[in-house]
Specification:
Helix content is 20%, strand content 42%. The protein is an alpha+beta fold.
Length: 260
């Protein structure tokens, strides 16, 4: 009887069936593929968002639930015959809104993702199985979108050759961070790691977006890196040979470490 109960408790959830086709969003600052699995009354969306240079793939699960204090939990992602361990960040900004679960994984751990038909997420309070089709085509569409994104932000070799003066921070970026920025949960658990981000700097020197390039292994540290730079960083924009401001990118890594 005990072994039967254990088997029932450990049973994987039935994969959810999508309710709408994939939609690829060609935003000005990122590429994303969205698929709905819920209803109007109980919305549930799965979002895939790759980094512009293909180093990280972020998974967002958007569901009803409203406000929630941000917290990270260990999570296991399953696809095809593989599993990958990481951390998930769960948060919700307002009572009437939706709750987000965010998982960032290194792309080189996801080689079998194009052929998967079921994508699972398991962790504390997280238990989802999404039935998928057309993953190869979706990932190819995201790659095409990223090519356009890199061109728009002058990241291609040809575009970079036109930049005569690189974007320069008005203030040293690391000086914008303090010990108060260390996420409370990560500090309590003495988590550390190195997050690398890509700042998209527009032709006025404003940070249009911050995109994760390499995960620290901790979702809270990754998120806080972008939150701080997106809110505080200001730049002198890149210039072409004629002195005209240009869109460009700026790379920055932050090593988070609890000091004893």
């Amino acid at each position: 009887m005990l072994s039967l109960l254990f088997s029932l408790a450990a049973a994987a959830p039935t994969p959810l069936t999508p309710t709408k086709p994939w939609v690829v969003d060609y935003s000005e600052t990122y590429c994303a593929a969205v698929r709905a699995f819920g209803t109007t009354e109980a919305p549930l969306d799965l979002v895939l968002r790759p980094s512009p240079e293909g180093d990280v793939l972020q998974f967002f699960i958007l569901r009803s639930g409203g406000f929630a204090m941000a917290q990270h939990v260990p999570v296991t992602v399953g696809f095809a015959d593989a599993t990958v361990k990481g951390t998930a960040l769960e948060y919700g900004f307002n009572k009437g809104g939706r709750r987000t679960i965010l998982i960032s994984l290194a792309n080189d751990t996801l080689r079998d993702l194009p052929k998967t038909r079921t994508l699972t997420f398991h962790g504390s309070g997280i238990d989802y199985a999404f039935g998928l089709t057309g993953m190869g085509q979706v990932l190819a569409a995201l790659a095409t979108c990223n090519e356009d994104l890199r061109t728009h932000w002058n990241m291609t070799d040809q575009a970079k050759a036109a930049i005569r003066t690189e974007a320069k921070p008005v203030y040293r970026l690391m000086d914008l961070l303090s010990s108060d920025d260390y996420p409370e949960q990560a500090l309590t658990e003495e988590d550390s790691g190195k997050a690398s981000v890509l700042l998209l700097v527009d032709d006025k020197g404003k940070v249009a977006d911050c995109l994760l390039q390499h995960t620290s292994g901790n979702a809270s540290l990754d998120a806080q890196t972008c939150i701080a730079f997106r809110n505080r960083a200001r730049f002198k924009p890149a210039l072409d040979a004629a002195g005209k401001p240009m869109r460009s990118v700026y790379r920055q890594a932050v090593s988070w470490k609890v000091r004893g």
